[in-house]
């Protein structure tokens, strides 16, 4: 995947990615953080439940890391216009606005990440690609002061009880 999420001009994938629809229901994800040198630093699984609300969706996530850490987060995602979405969560340090282009959803934000026993402000550039109706691949580039710290690679899978 290119850093900007463009799949080498391939726009033939049908069906626009709508985060408020895809993330509704029960999901699981697996992923890892790879540092700027290509070393896998952390692996994790994540379970999530998306609850549809009048303003959009709330996504309740629980991350289980390979080192035993557990982290909970709730995202609130709402539509701002036809192809723009807003995200909110407690650890955000800036606005989080996302744009949909066909099967691609990208958003950018500053985030307080737990590192070295404290919260460090970093920047995330997320690109999600809807591969199938039930699978999304996510690559998040993590930077600090413009310097690459690494990438988070994550695959979301809708669970059978929420498949349509």
Can you tell me the CATH superfamily?
Answer: Calycin beta-barrel core domain
Write the CATH architecture name: Beta Barrel
* Backbone structural class: mainly beta
* Poorly predicted runs of 5 or more residues: 1-5
Estimated helix fraction: under 10%
Number of DSSP strand runs: 10
Give the helices and strands as they follow along the chain: HEEEEEEEEEE
Features:
164 residues, mainly beta, Lipocalin, globular
Structure in a nutshell:
The protein is built from 1 helix and 10 strands, in the order αββββββββββ. It is an all-beta fold.
Structure, explained:
The structure is a single chain. This protein is mainly beta. The protein has a single domain (19-162), classed as Lipocalin, CATH 2.40.128. 2% of the residues lie in helices and 63% in strands. It contains one helix and ten strands, in the order αββββββββββ. The protein has one helix at 19-22, and strands at residues 25-35, 40-53, 56-65, 70-79, 84-88, 97-101, 104-115, 118-132, 135-144, 147-158. The radius of gyration is 15 Å and the shape is globular.
Layout of strands and helices, then pairs:
Elements: H1 19-22, E1 25-35, E2 40-53, E3 56-65, E4 70-79, E5 84-88, E6 97-101, E7 104-115, E8 118-132, E9 135-144, E10 147-158
Antiparallel strand pairs: 1-2, 1-10, 2-3, 3-4, 4-5, 5-6, 6-7, 7-8, 8-9, 9-10
